[in-house]
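Lecture notes, continued. The same structure-token format from the folding unit now serves as the input rather than the output. Read the line below as a description of shape only.
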């Protein structure tokens, strides 16, 4: 039987105005075993001043490794979202994120297609995305890093579109980072979708959606940054966990919520389900 870990995306401290190391320590304090930091290019004022959790890839990757070791947590992946159809941005960004992941110890680099240029055709978009993913895979394969393609944006909001993006490049490095909340908000049954692709999934964003958000946004958006606490929204987490047991590999449920309190409640809810699955 595969293992299911419960991790957290560091977006849960976005509004606490605290640095990366504080976020890692807080995740460990809550009881999470895995974390998913966000990385960025260049220098960003709030991060440099210690008011935001993102880490610059101009920093030493060992900064992440040391923080995780000090807190006693592991990395489930890196959040490295970039518009795949804009290679002038995404190619070098993803390649650097993959090298960064290999050195800091993150097994997966998560990304999504991102917003497209308004003047490109669909055919052009898929050619550009193929170029970007192939360049990234060339760097990921020899380092043993996986690329998690997430459903979020115009093409991947549908199962067929995500499949089409996934199949652009034949590489053992290419997988899927399934986001339960994005799949639901785009108007689909996330459980049915997950069941069809579980053997390609390398990481999961455990995002629940409140009844209020569902009522106002479902079918109108392609995703959302964070959700509510897991177990307090519309997602059937017991069935999600059951499906994850069918995966060919160990998986991490990386919680995406907006507050520390939601993170604590999410962990309690998911721990009970994983223990009994």
């Amino acid at each position: 039987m595969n293992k299911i870990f419960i991790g957290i995306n560091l977006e849960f401290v976005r509004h606490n105005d605290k640095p990366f190391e504080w976020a890692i320590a807080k995740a460990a304090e809550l009881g999470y075993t895995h974390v998913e930091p966000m990385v960025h290019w260049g220098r960003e004022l709030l991060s440099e001043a210690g008011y935001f959790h993102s880490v610059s890839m101009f920093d030493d990757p060992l900064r992440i490794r040391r923080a995780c070791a000090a807190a006693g947590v592991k990395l489930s992946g890196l959040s490295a979202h970039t518009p795949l159809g804009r290679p002038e941005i995404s190619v070098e960004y993803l390649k650097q994120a993959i090298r960064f992941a290999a050195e800091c110890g993150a097994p997966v680099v998560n990304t999504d297609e991102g917003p497209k240029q308004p003047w490109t055709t669909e055919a052009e978009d898929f050619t550009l995305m193929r170029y970007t993913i192939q360049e990234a895979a060339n760097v990921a394969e020899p380092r043993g890093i996986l690329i998690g393609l997430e459903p979020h944006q115009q093409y991947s909001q549908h199962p067929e579109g995500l499949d089409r993006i996934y199949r652009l490049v034949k590489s053992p490095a290419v997988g899927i980072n399934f986001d339960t909340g994005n799949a639901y908000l785009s108007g689909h049954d996330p459980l049915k979708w997950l069941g069809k692709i579980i053997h390609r999934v390398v990481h999961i964003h455990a995002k629940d959606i409140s009844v209020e958000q569902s009522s106002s946004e479902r079918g109108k958006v392609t995703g959302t940054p964070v959700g509510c606490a897991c177990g307090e929204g519309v997602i059937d987490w017991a069935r999600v966990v059951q499906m994850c047991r069918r995966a060919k590999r160990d998986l991490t449920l990386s919680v995406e919520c907006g507050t520390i309190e939601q993170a604590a409640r999410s962990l309690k809810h998911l721990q009970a389900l994983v223990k009994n699955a």
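Point for the exam: The radius of gyration is 17 Å.
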